[in-house]
Amino acid sequence: MTNNPTRQRILDKTAELLEMQGYHATGLNQIIKESGAPRGSLYYYFPEGKEELAAEAVRDNAERMVAHARQALAAVADPAEAVYQMIVGIAHHAADSGCQGGAPLAAVALEASATSERLRTVCREGYAALAVPFAEKLVGAGLPPARAERLGVFITAALEGAVILTRVQQDPAALTAVAEEIRLLIQQAV
After folding, report:
1. Alpha helix (H) ranges present in the chain?
2. How do residues 21-78 score in pLDDT, each as one tens digit?
């Protein structure tokens, strides 16, 4: 279905609420109210209800994360420095936002993946897609594809964990530490 401003506004607000309060605490009435969308629009675009809406919001957010990673990694030729700068940029963003947000998949993945195959699948696909730009950057630097893919998964997991620690600790130091360690790891690998 083609995207339009009302549908996108519903997805954006859903993603924001899922990230801040989780799947079970986010209700359709709250999404309708806070997005400013008519109730009929929500059911028109997401006829299967909350689970479909949440899955689409997670998918949309994952696509944005992948696009951001590709753009950030393309801006710097050296792969170790590219990943480092990307993660440090996330740390700066976290600091500027009061260490809120930054983990759009984590809340849904942890809360709903055991009870919803649809949400588990979309989270799994989102994390897998996020690892790809890292792996591609490393293959471009001469790493064998299998090693680059493993490091892409490692970077994704370390980044997501550091974002969670940043939120819990209300301090982006975990992101900075992960950025520095990943930079060293990539320098040694390439």
Report:
1. 5-21, 28-35, 39-45, 50-74, 79-96, 106-112, 117-140, 145-169, 173-189
2. 889 999 999 999 999 998 899 999 999 999 999 999 999 999 999 999 999 999 999 9
- Does residue 160 contact residue 127 with C-beta atoms inside 8 Å? yes
* Cβ atoms 121, 182 nearer than 8 A: no
Q: Domain residues of the chain, as ranges?
A: 5-189
Sign of CA dihedral 158, 161, 163, 166: negative
Nearest to 109 by CA among 130, 91, 134, 85: 130
> What topology does CATH give the domain 5-189?
Tetracycline Repressor; domain 2 (1.10.357)
CA atoms within 13 A on the CB side of 146: 0
The residue among 2 and 160 whose pLDDT is bigger is 160
